[in-house]
């Protein structure tokens, strides 16, 4: 087995050693500008601008992977608040954002005023003592503005809120209505949820589908789907007090191996074109689905599927999947202006505005107290109000694992082990657990067993 992905995780140790070596950058004045650039180019442009635009206009520099949406939102923010600000936006690929942070710090270059983080990398990024505590003076962000489950996902291990969320990351179980009706006897979301309140029930129902279809139809396209949901439902910390705790890992791996051996999950890699194509086929029924999935995943991959999708609660309840957040470096030159923007994103005004401007669901709790606003309909999901599940029902039981210093390493090991179990049926439960534990201790030998 070639563990080619594991080399990336070794960078975890590098970033922890570099936390005190940077300043923040700023950019050209007066316009919203999007650039494709590397860390050095970004830093040089920031240094030349000196952090102030002409007149009283403040230029905020920002990394991110949603240029078009952010530009529209920033325009709405200025119109709503009257802020005399401009934005220099540097496009960073989401999967490369952690590496870009490492490169920038190790080179002694400036970071921007606003740094994004995806949840799987956030804990490692927050472990650096280089971020502003946004719940403390002079910011005093009120955590009650955002959903309660988001606080541990945006706080460092000392409990400081060093990131503000950008989206609602609650997720459920999407399904193809025509296939559900044919193989499960119903396409009603409540009736489907009642079919399998536990994962054991789901396994048994999957066996029935397999038999009925002659082994051609699968409950999921990839074991990555199983991992995403079950691990997302488990709040048990993986590392606690410097010790690796395999409890949640073993629980998730146990179900992954059971589903694989029962033949109810296909062995498609999630990163493949075959996986993307599976959304439009008649061979795979279920997919994890967050609030961003319809626009960014389901529609593009199933362009003829309008009205054929439904959303239900998976066994054991909803979970958190993905989620972006923004941090401000302590040495940023435009901290106040940066905070004014990212905090506005989480106001009721900002949340409503983003829904209007880019159809994006962000995190202000008060906005969702309005039944009309919390209702969310999507053409691909027909007449179903998927907002009722994502913004109301999901909050009743959702549990999340707090982010951790070791998240980047853990996610890399998860990726490697999932791919191994997916492709090699000779790897049983014990072998998968041993592989996971050995790789973690190889990369982070200081962890106690």
Structure, described:
- The chain has 449 residues and is α+β, with helices and mostly antiparallel strands.
- It contains 19 helices and twelve strands.
- The strands form four sheets. Strands 6, 9, 10 and 11 form a four-stranded antiparallel sheet that branches. The protein has a three-stranded parallel sheet with strand order 1-3-2, with helices on one face.
- Helix 4 links the parallel strand 2 and strand 3.
- The radius of gyration is 22 Å and the shape is globular.
- The protein starts with 5 loop residues before the first helix and ends in a 6-residue tail after the last helix.
- The model is unreliable at 1-54 (pLDDT under 50).
Low-confidence stretches: 1-54
The value of Rg in angstroms is 22 Å
- Figure out the total of helices: 19
DSSP strand content: 5-15%
Largest sheet: 4 strands, antiparallel
Silhouette? globular
- The secondary structure category is alpha+beta
Number of strands: 12
**End-to-end span in angstroms?**
24 Å
Mean pLDDT: 88
Helicity range: 40-55%
């Amino acid at each position: 087995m070639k563990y080619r992905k594991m080399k990336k995780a070794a960078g975890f140790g590098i970033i922890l050693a570099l936390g005190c070596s940077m300043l923040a950058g700023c950019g050209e004045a007066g316009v919203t500008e999007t650039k494709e650039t590397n860390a050095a180019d970004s830093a040089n442009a920031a240094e030349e601008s000196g952090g102030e635009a002409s007149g009283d206009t403040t230029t905020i520099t920002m990394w991110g992977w949603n240029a078009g949406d952010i530009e529209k939102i920033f325009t709405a923010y200025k119109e709503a608040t009257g802020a005399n600000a401009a934005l220099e936006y540097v496009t960073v690929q989401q999967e490369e954002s952690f590496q870009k942070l490492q490169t920038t710090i190790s080179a002694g270059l400036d970071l921007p005023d606003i740094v994004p983080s995806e949840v799987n990398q956030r804990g490692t990024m927050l472990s650096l003592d280089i971020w502003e505590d946004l719940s403390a003076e002079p910011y005093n962000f009120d955590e009650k503005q955002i959903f309660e489950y988001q606080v541990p996902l945006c706080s460092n291990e000392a409990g400081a809120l060093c990131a503000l969320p950008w989206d609602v990351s609650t997720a459920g179980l999407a399904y193809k209505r025509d296939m559900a009706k044919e193989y499960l006897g119903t396409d009603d979301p409540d009736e489907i949820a009642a079919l399998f309140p536990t994962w054991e029930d789901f396994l048994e129902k999957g066996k029935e589908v397999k038999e009925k279809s002659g082994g051609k139809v699968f409950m999921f396209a990839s074991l990555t789907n199983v991992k995403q949901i079950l691990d997302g439902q488990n709040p048990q910390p993986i590392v606690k007090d410097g010790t690796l705790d395999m409890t949640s890992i073993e629980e998730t791996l146990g179900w992954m191996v059971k589903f694989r051996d029962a033949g109810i999950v296909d062995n498609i890699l999630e990163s493949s074109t075959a996986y993307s194509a599976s959304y439009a086929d008649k061979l795979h029924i279920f997919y994890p689905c967050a609030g961003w999935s319809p626009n960014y995943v389901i529609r593009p991959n199933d362009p003829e599927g309008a009205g054929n999708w439904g959303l239900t609660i998976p066994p054991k309840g909803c979970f958190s999947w993905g989620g972006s957040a923004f941090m401000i470096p302590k040495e940023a030159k435009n901290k106040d202006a940066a905070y004014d923007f990212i905090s506005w994103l989480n106001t009721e005004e900002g949340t409503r505005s983003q829904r209007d401007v880019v159809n994006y669901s962000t995190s202000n709790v008060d906005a969702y107290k309005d039944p009309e606003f919390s209702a969310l309909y999507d053409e691909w999901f027909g007449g179903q109000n998927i907002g009722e599940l994502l913004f109301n029902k999901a909050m009743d039981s959702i549990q999340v694992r707090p982010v951790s210093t070791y998240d980047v390493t853990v996610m890399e090991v998860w990726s490697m082990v999932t791919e191994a179990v997916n492709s090699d049926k000779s790897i049983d439960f014990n072998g998968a657990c041993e592989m996971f534990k050995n790789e973690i201790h190889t990369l982070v030998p200081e962890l106690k067993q």
